[in-house]
Specification:
Helices cover 75% and strands 0% of the residues. By secondary structure, the protein is mainly α.
Length: 141
Amino acid sequence: MALLILLFVYTGTSKLLDFATFKFALSRTPLVGTQAPVVAWILPLTEFAIALLLFFPRSRKLGLWASLLIMIVFTGYLTYMIYFTPARPCNCGGVLKQMTWKQHLVFNIFFTLLALAGIWLSRRRQSTATKNEQLEQPVFT
């Protein structure tokens, strides 16, 4: 959980700290292009929102599903760029900018699997709690 929160806060912050470069790189990508001004704001704000959802126990399950969804989208984007786009402008910030595209793909797959594991563990924990509640019910009422 903490790794996902750290990831989304870090990536959202790095995009906003170098906003002009991020927006320009987005404008050069074939999938975003003219929508770059809007997408440049939506992505970091979405990452911050997901981090907040993950932080609070009541919204954690939704945060895990949102994490999984956004990581699938990011991973799909990277895969598309690697295999179908010859010119690949990097619109990542911070440490992620230092990775190759394939390293970044592996990084994203790891965090996608981490979100999936979080969903699986929360379901398992919820199932165990339900079973325990049923066992604690009095036999005679």
